[in-house]
Design a protein that fits this description.
This protein is α/β, with parallel strands linked by helices. The chain contains 13 helices and 14 strands. It is globular. The structure holds 3-isopropylmalic acid (IPM) and magnesium ion.
Length: 383
């Protein structure tokens, strides 16, 4: 099959991590006889520099014509002083809204190879894990095109006061919950709605909608947590979570917190979807690592490309329904980690100083070498 993939390399480390991800996709394409046509598009700081706006209309229009979009990262200090509407981040929001991808799936699991990079003690990891193992595997489903990010905002009192608003409609909440439930059915069948219903009216609506929708998913255990408690539970007993469904802002914050538990934010992929029917090719989806543009390490070949490579795997799974190929990419990532290859962010510090025998098993590699290793591991799977 032929597929069109929009590529938005963006700023900072974006282009560096996107390169390896497309190389991996090409290895997949060669093996299965798929052709991926890449359509490179400008957005973010790069677009501000070349045409004065973060999301040129042509970019959004061209993206809509593609089967999926893979994005590196946008933003950087160079554009930090621009007014809100002109900041690179507007490109992300504009793409999310413009493509209608309202459900953002952010999986965060502890890989056995990176257990030492997790800041939590075994005792904490075992707590509330049904198997009593030092492990967690959760999925944050973040509402992505509503809430505080898109509500009315402005200034009053001659600029001396400001407001942002959290608005949600029943439909917006219902559709993201349904995606959460669909995902939970394929996992451990537990779904936790995270809100601030003790204070916010919008959160009380979330609970009403959840109570109604839950009736249709009796096979899933539904629970509720306030977001402050959830933030605490994530570092107190992450093993208790399966699927978390929450608003745009809460999901943004909780997913950064969860990423630290996996060892590095550089590992985490994400998928932004407008529908999810397992076993079927999805409509246009947007895929990106959850880390940002990391301008401080850009251009040094030290960024971790695995979050973007794994985003490519999600793209294969959700937009193209190529489950076998997606699983092969994920397995290849495990293989290179098993072989001890580590980018700087996931290198065991003690190995650097040679105080543990891990020194012999962990090897520091750059962005490009990590990507090449994943390609080789994939090729070996099929050799
Ligand atoms: C994310 C990022 C973005 C967000 C920023 C860059 C606008 O933090 O994807 O989590 O807040 O959604
Ligand atoms: Mg974020």
């Amino acid at each position: 099959m032929d597929y069109a993939i929009a590529l938005v390399p963006g700023d900072g480390i974006g282009p560096e991590v996107l390169g390896p991800a497309t190389e991996v996709l090409d290895v997949v394409g060669d093996h299965y006889g798929h052709v991926f046509h890449y359509v490179e598009l400008e957005a973010g700081g790069k677009a501000i520099d070349s045409c004065g706006e973060p999301l040129p209309r042509e970019t959004l229009e061209a993206a809509k014509q593609c089967d999926a979009l893979l994005l590196g990262a946008v933003g950087g200090p160079k554009w930090d002083t621009l007014p809100g509407q002109l900041r690179p981040e507007r490109a992300l929001l504009g793409l999310r809204a413009g493509l209608g991808v309202f459900a953002n799936l952010r999986p965060a699991a502890l890989l056995p190879q990176l257990k030492d990079a997790c800041p939590l003690k075994d005792e904490v990891l075992c707590r509330s894990n049904p198997q009593g193992k030092p492990h967690f595997d959760l999925l944050i489903v973040r509402e992505l095109t509503g809430g505080l990010y898109f509500g009315a905002r402005g200034r009053g009192n001659e600029g001396k006061s400001a407001f942002d608003t959290e608005t949600y409609s029943w439909e917006e909440i219902e559709r993201v919950l349904r995606i959460g439930y669909t995902a939970a059915r394929l996992r451990r069948k537990r779904l936790c709605v995270v809100d601030k219903a003790n204070v916010l009216e919008s959160s009380r609506l979330w609970r009403e909608v959840a109570a109604a929708v839950a009736q249709e998913y009796q096979d899933i255990e539904t629970s509720y947590l306030y977001v402050d408690n959830c933030a605490m539970q994530l570092i107190r007993a992450p093993g208790q979570f399966d699927v978390i469904v929450t608003s745009n802002l809460f999901g943004d914050i909780l997913s950064d917190e969860a990423s630290v538990l996996t060892g590095s934010i550089g590992m985490l992929p994400s998928a932004s979807l407008s529908s999810f029917v397992p076993g079927h090719k999805g409509p246009m989806g947007m895929y990106e690592p959850i880390h940002g543009s990391a301008p401080d390490i850009a251009g040094q070949d030290i960024a971790n490309p695995l979050g973007t490579i794994l985003s490519g795997a999600m793209l294969l799974r959700y937009s193209f329904n190529l489950e076998e190929a997606a699983a092969a990419v994920e397995a290849a990532v495990q293989t290179v980690l098993d072989a001890g290859l580590r980018t700087k962010d996931i290198l065991n510090r003690s190995a650097v100083y040679g105080t543990e025998k891990k020194e012999k098993t962990e090897k520091l590699v750059g962005t490009k070498a990590m990507g090449e290793a994943v390609c080789r591991a994939l090729a070996q799977t099929w050799a």
